[in-house]
């Protein structure tokens, strides 16, 4: 059996470890062969490939990014898109089954293709940790570690100048990165998409900290909205899926905080730093396990499913469970964190 492997959507620490885990188990245990599909669904549509064997994946477990490349191409668009054309491309390059590694958009496309009869299994990938069907997705732990270290670093300069620092982290629809990194770094306020807040409340938290002679640290997810806003802050146009490119909410909040409280305030937007670099030890292990489990799914011909982490066990779940709803931060988790605010 020849298996194609692709990575699609945003890059993420741990992608290469998934590839390595799948290739090593497939070649050593089942005598399978592999081919890399380059640049996500674009490679499936256009037939872009690269060799993928034991030599290719040597030492990949600790390497960030993805050796296969990625894109946000929609496999149903363009003259070569659609299930029939995709299957024809896979037949031409000799692929018997496909491992699709990606987030909600990637898995939604994989579901549509498997509904049309293609043989695909999925591996969940998102630093936002927002896929409801898995307890944790790889890349999240690394992103939290990067954000936590960054907050620790800005705290030292904040304390030196008695400034308020507003640190923006990723999180379009959910606030898991902000919640975990903010709690770990001892933030005085954490602002997430699930919990709109008033400017008055944010400034009150900041003022409480300043009145104690401390430098306030505010962590905000890019998708956070004030209770006076209808949509998340966006000034960068639309992405390939016609979604607003978010970012800049910290730049909007910092001057408003300074104007209302008199506390000098600065904004720091971490952006793609959270996606870069080597994966954490936890993410390397989780990624490797998921890659190996994807091979088991193929051997059992469990098409239209993805591997997922439940507790400490890796299980299989249907694609529809993965893309049906987002895993948001529960209110009790936010209330728990809010005890530490101000």
TrEMBL record:
Cofactor(s) it depends on: Mg(2+)
Pathway the protein contributes to: Carbohydrate degradation; glycolysis; D-glyceraldehyde 3-phosphate and glycerone phosphate from D-glucose: step 3/4
Positions of transmembrane segments: none
Short name of one Pfam family: PFK
GO terms classed as biological process: canonical glycolysis; fructose 1,6-bisphosphate metabolic process; fructose 6-phosphate metabolic process
Catalyzed reactions per annotation: beta-D-fructose 6-phosphate + ATP = beta-D-fructose 1,6-bisphosphate + ADP + H(+)
Binding site for ATP: 10, 72-73, 103-106
Domain Phosphofructokinase residue range list: 2-297
Subcellular location: Cytoplasm
InterPro entries for the chain: ATP_PFK (IPR022953), ATP_PFK_prok-type (IPR012003), Phosphofructokinase_CS (IPR015912), Phosphofructokinase_dom (IPR000023), Phosphofructokinase_III (IPR012829), PKF_sf (IPR035966)
EC class of the enzyme, as a word: transferase
Annotated site, Important for substrate specificity, chain positions: 105
Example of a GO MF term: 6-phosphofructokinase activity
Alphabetically ordered keywords of this record: ATP-binding, Cytoplasm, Glycolysis, Kinase, Magnesium, Metal-binding, Nucleotide-binding, Transferase
Summary of subunit composition and partner proteins: Homodimer or homotetramer.
Protein name in UniProt: ATP-dependent 6-phosphofructokinase
Source organism of this protein record: Labedella endophytica
Gene behind the chain: pfkA
């Amino acid at each position: 059996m020849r298996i194609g492997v692709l990575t699609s959507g945003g890059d993420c620490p741990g992608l290469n470890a998934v590839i390595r885990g799948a290739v090593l188990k497939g070649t050593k245990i089942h005598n399978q062969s592999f081919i890399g599909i380059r640049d996500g669904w674009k490679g499936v549509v256009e037939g872009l490939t690269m060799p993928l064997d034991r030599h290719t994946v040597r030492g990949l477990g600790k390497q960030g990014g993805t050796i296969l490349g990625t894109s946000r191409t929609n496999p149903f668009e363009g003259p070569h898109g659609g299930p029939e054309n995709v299957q024809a491309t896979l037949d031409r390059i000799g692929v018997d089954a496909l491992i699709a590694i990606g987030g909600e958009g990637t898995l939604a496309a994989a579901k549509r293709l498997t509904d049309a009869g293609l043989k695909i299994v999925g591996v969940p990938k998102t630093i936002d940790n927002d896929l409801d069907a898995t307890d944790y997705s790889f890349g999240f732990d690394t992103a939290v570690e990067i954000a936590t270290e960054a907050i620790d670093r800005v705290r030292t300069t904040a304390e030196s100048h008695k400034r308020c620092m507003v640190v923006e982290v990723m999180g379009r629809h959910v606030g898991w990165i902000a919640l975990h990194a903010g709690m770990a770094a001892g933030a005085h306020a954490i602002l997430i998409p699930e919990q709109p807040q008033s400017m008055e409340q944010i400034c009150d938290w900041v003022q409480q900290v300043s009145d104690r002679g401390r430098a306030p640290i505010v962590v905000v997810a890019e998708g956070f909205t004030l209770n006076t806003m209808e949509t998340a802050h966006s000034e960068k146009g639309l992405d390939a899926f016609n979604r607003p490119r978010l970012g800049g909410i910290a730049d909007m909040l910092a001057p408003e905080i300074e104007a209302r409280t008199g506390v000098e305030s600065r904004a720091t937007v971490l952006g793609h730093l959270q996606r870069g670099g080597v994966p954490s030890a936890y993410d390397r292990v989780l990624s490797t396990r998921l890659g190996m489990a994807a091979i088991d799914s193929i051997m059992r011909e469990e098409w239209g499913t993805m591997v997922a982490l439940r507790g400490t066990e890796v299980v299989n779940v249907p694609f529809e469970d993965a893309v049906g709803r987002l895993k948001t931060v529960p209110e009790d988790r936010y209330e728990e964190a809010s005890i530490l605010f101000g």
